[in-house]
Amino acid sequence: MKHSLKTPPTRRSFLASVGAATGLLGLSPRNIFAQTPPVQTGQIPTGTQSDWHLNVTRQSITIDGKTLNAPTVNSTVPGPVLRMKEGENISISVTNHLTEETSIHWHGLRVPAHMDGVPGLSFHGIAPGETFTYRFPLKQSGTYWYHSHSNMQEAQGLVGALIIDPATPDPLSCERDYVVVLGEWTDVSPAEIVSNLKMQDDYYNFRQRTTASLPAQSQHDGGAIPALKSRLMWSGMNMSATDISDVSGVIYTYTLNGIAPHTGWEGIFQAGERIRLRFINSATMTLFDVRIPGLEMMVVAADGNPVEPVPVDEFRIGVAETYDIIVQPHENRAYTLFAQSEDRTGYALGTLTPHTGIRAPIPAMDSRPVRTMADMGMDMDGMDMSDMASMPGMDMTTHHTPMPPHHHMAGMKMDKMDMSSMPGMDMKSMHHGHHMHMMPGMHMDGMGNMPMHSMDMGHMSMSSDSKMQNAKSDTPPPRLEIDDPGPPPINVENQNIAAHPIDRLNDPGDGLAQNGRRVLTYKHLRALTPAPDQRPASREIILHLTGNMQRYIWGFNGRKFSESGPIRLQRNERIRFTLINDTMMEHPIHLHGFWSELENGQGAFNPRKHTIISQPGSKLSFLMTADEPGLWAFHCHLLYHMDLGMFRTVSVA
Amino acid sequence: MTNPTLPIMLALGLLGAFTLTQTAHAQIITVHQAADAPNASSPTSMPGMSPVMMDQSTWLHGIFNQLEGRYSPQATDFRWDGEMWFGSDYDRLWIRSEGTVANGRMDDGQHDILYSHAISTYWNLQGGTRLDLDSGPTRAWAAFGVQGLALYQFELSAMGYVGGNGGAATRIEGTYDFLLTNRLILQPNVELNAYTRADPSRGVGSGLSEIDTGLRLRYEHWRKLAPYVAVTYNTALGQARHFPDNREANRTALRFAFGLRSWF
Ligand SMILES: [Cu+2]
Fold first, then answer.
1. Where are the domains of chain A?
2. Dihedral sign of CA atoms B154, B237, B97, B87 in order
3. A51-169 CATH fold
4. Nearest CA to CA, how far is A649 from chain B (Å)?
5. Is A332 exposed, middle or buried (CB count within 10 Å of its CB: 0-12, 13-18, 19+)?
6. Taking CA A523 as the corner, what is the angle to CA A519 and CA A527, rounded to the nearest 5 degrees?
7. ipTM of the modeled complex
């Protein structure tokens, strides 16, 4: 169905557009409705360049009527798309014209530590008036992005896309190639947002359960009694089932390539062309759920790395993640790029269209997610012990490396598990007094939803100082040292312990399961080429993601950054990080400078990412090789979580 | 200050708070051997330069929970109840103030200056001093108590006081927010005051002496400035009712009020 934008502008959009006319975008109501082409954002430069000069300045930018004196790169929000070529030596000079320090971090790039751009860890920052030249060889290709790592400039627009052409001809090259930078825009200062959250953590949430919403909830929950019970249970924990996003569409305008939904970004195509869309979530606090009604999306790359193509109808993109998708519309009509915020308080919007000015219908937003016991790490349902092999991470045959232990194995009763049918697991070789940690070849992740309290493993537990022999393997696996802090303390900085964290890699995320669409999960991702380092991990570091929502404090292991030490790694050490999310929110966890090989059961072909969403109440692990010395940042990419403590230094020496 | 015991009270209160908080702190420090545990020899940043992080920032907030006129045929009062804090996640300077202005006189002025230390997920331990400062005789107390969020999201404050008139006192206050809609909020509130020793010149009897309770319906069009209507009830209780010149007893009333809840 074709649909021209002929309706008169609402007062709000009219004012917003007038405001925008004085801003960077140069939009006016006239040029929207006279069907002159909108701004050409999202375009990738035609050629690569290895020398760049970027100017960071303050600029008055108006989007959706909200004006900000924003820190910008070359005066635009988002900044210019930088296109480079793999294998070249890159030089990027950044001149700081602000009155405060700035910095640019190359998100996902494997660079020497002093080029990573995190003030205080890898360099001194760029002082006002100063020029800093980043120099590094490009050892990778794909879709990446850059952003400030100083103060909270990233929240005000200091972000941009970075595209790296592969050294060899790109097998994924398409007739059309666009970047789709998702973001959020507000004229409320980051400092004020944090201060408001400190005083009242649900300041931006106007979707809470209320007396007025009880009838609707009762209908959904199957009666007033279950609805009230659920409310009592949540308030008994001093938490809220409607706690989805800390900051919401109440103040945010969600943007696509810097353009508000009522204006809408346009990407031009001709029927039959293959279009590559490079999605980058440059928002500070918002996870987006993306779909293009009427088109199948082929996911071809995740966080810059090619993956085996996955056809989907929808995918969730966490803050700082990137996904490349390919679509091939055969009809000469417009298609809506629809990216709704996870909490459904708004959406970013764009249009793929054969002719400028044409719009496709805008789908209604889905109902918002409501947190469940699974998000609290208390999921006791859906346990199916009869089919252990189908549990994510239980694939015994393909794993010859020691797998992460389950966390709270004490007292597990195994009699319902058919252990004898598990390949590679010889129960007879287990000795008394041993600890479950050292069971090679056994990935216990998927067992998180067993009723732990009734499990009895006393007679088969194993100790960590004696190695288990893998019956099927000739060479004994290397010693695996585990740094397990145990369940985090419940303290001022931590509100909850996920008693039974589960594997959620095959879960598309809260609000997306059973919506009738094919939604991407992490389980789908399979790298095209094996990771270069196939050594098993010699050390496992378990980190609990913790926080106190009520006080708005975030951290790891019940401690915020300023009370923590560094995570010390030896150079070239092979490390497994296991993340247990004790909070009820998603945290996109980003490790600077290295690939995080997500252990999603693809073995040598585990996908390599730079940012991994840790779902609430979940447990996951990734491998990394500490092959680059220096101090590196490791943090949640929700800006206000990072700033309030969910940050660690990783020291490689 | 005219009361010579004030500095001693203040010192005692702070000392008490400190002793308890140190004990509580020790429990938090009993952490596991984690890879990221603090270690003096391992810097988390470049020498002399740390990543900019707000997790040690200080914050300043204040709130008037009550700022209202209370109306009845017999007497119309103006009442406030507010608090302000400045500090970090753990340590804050906390100031509370409440009082009534009736017929040009200030009554019931209670002002707490407290050091507040976070001791658990939802609770803060507070110690310092309370001043009864209004048109009546001034009293100073050493103050000590807890403030925080009980389960089921009840806001509670329970304070104990010693000194004032040579006796001890307690004040317990609880509030709850019922969300009728996301912006229309019904807030019941109860404050109880009890004393071990009568102080007739301040209208205080021994035992449970005074109750102030209200039911406020506010509309949060802006989070930070919400007008409300309320029904309030305050009265002297027990012995205090029988002091012949007790203004509090005379003013006993169920009243209609309207006001503003406001914070920054
Ligand atoms: Cu987070």
1. 51-169, 172-207+242-366, 481-652
2. negative
3. Immunoglobulin-like (2.60.40)
4. 6
5. middle
6. 110
7. 0.86
Question: Which single residue is written with the structure tokens 């809609």?
Answer: B181
- Residues around ion ligand 1, judged by CB within 5 A, are A 587, 636, 638, 641
Q: One digit per residue, pLDDT tens: chain B, 264 residues?
A: 345 455 565 555 555 554 444 444 333 223 356 889 888 788 899 988 888 889 999 999 999 999 999 998 777 889 999 999 999 999 999 999 999 998 888 988 999 999 999 999 999 999 999 999 999 999 999 999 999 998 888 999 999 999 988 999 999 999 999 999 999 999 999 999 999 999 988 888 899 988 999 999 999 999 999 999 999 998 888 777 777 666 655 566 789 999 999 999
Q: How many CB atoms lie within 10 A of CB A414?
A: 17
Domains A51-169 and A481-652 in one fold? yes
Q: Which of residues 20-39 of B touch A (CB under 8 A)?
A: 27-28, 30-39
d(CA A540, CA A481): 6
Query: Contact, A119 vs A103, CB < 8 A?
Result: yes
Q: Please list every residue in chain A whose beta carbon sits closer than 8 Å to the beta carbon of residue B27.
A: 491
| CATH C-level class of A172-207+242-366 | mainly beta
**CA A614 to ligand 1 center in whole angstroms:** 9
Would you state the torsion angle of the CA atoms of residues A238, A243, A247, A253, taken in this order, to the nearest 10 degrees?
-160
Q: Which amino acid is at B85?
A: W
B residues 73-102 closer than 8 Å to A (CB)? 89-90
Query: What is the interface size between A and B, counted as CB pairs within 8 Å?
Result: 163
Q: Is the CB of B32 less than 8 angstroms away from the CB of A485? A: yes
The rounded distance, in Å, linking the Cα atoms of A61 and A71 is 9
Three-state SS at A167: coil
A481-652 CATH: 2.60.40.420
**Would you call B19 exposed, middle or buried from its count of C-beta atoms within 10 A (0-12, 13-18, 19+)?**
exposed
Paired tokens of A315 = 């995918």
Going along A328-435, which residue ranges are E strands? 335-341, 347-353, 358-359
**Interatomic CA distance for residues A639 and A283, integer angstroms:** 9
Closest approach of B1 to chain A, Cα-based (Å): 33
Place of tokens 């035609």: A46
